[in-house]
Amino acid sequence: MIKKSSRRRFIQLTAGGIIGLTLGNKFLIRPVTAAELSRLEQDSPQASALKYVNKSTTTGQNCKNCLLIRNDGSNSEWQPCAIFPGKSVNINGWCSAYAPQPA
Fold this sequence. Notes:
The chain has 103 residues and is of the alpha+beta class.
């Protein structure tokens, strides 16, 4: 015999799925720290394409105050960057994707 689905069962399963996804996201995904990432080398193809340097030559324009930096909460000189996934960049560096943080 085939079981008939009910509206109540549908709502229960949907609510359970939403709760499961929310809790799973909170407890299973954690941010990566710069210490876990390899440092971006200036001569790598991606860094060269974006003209990345470890030391900015323009006053006030560096990775430390860029919108794309992902500060991991440490005081490390190397931090994750959204432009270079899996790599950390020097906070004193600069690249052509630089975007100033809003004031």
